[in-house]
Here is the input.
Amino acid sequence: MPDSVYSPVQKDRATFLTTSRASGGELTLIEIELAPGGGNTLHYHTAFTEHFHVLSGQLGVRIGQETRALGRGQSALVRLREHHRFFNSTAEVAVFQVELRPGSAGFESAIRIAYGLAADGRTTQTGIPRSFVDLAILAGMAETYPTGPAGILAAVLGRVASTRIGRRRRSELIARYCPVGDIR
Here is the structure.
């Protein structure tokens, strides 16, 4: 049975349909229920492609300079290092699946931790961890990096996550928010 996590801050649910571990590293498949007004900022990934497939509602997707509104049955592919974001600018919940290839246990863990921190009141109103160390750890685990001026932070975040304090905190976050047996 698939498991899911909920962010009371963003009012989004992520249901893990296929984990990297279960697929032998081939893919991660997550179903997202994206609340009205929800979404993320422009970013890119260095280790996997993303394929978005809308099940219901409407999902906005920006890939590079192109922005599209995807409806039920429509899809979009984001290649490695392509700048992109997704969002829901409607008044209805958008339900979509996102497939990562290859699978990413780190991304899966980062989602679990981010939603867990939100549930524990340890994020901003936009779901960003209040702790710079936690933010650094999540960015590295998810292999997700901001674009533009915020992209300058990527190198700093990587250094913070690799410190002794960062490594200890990473272990604490995994122990608290990730199921036993997951590969991270």
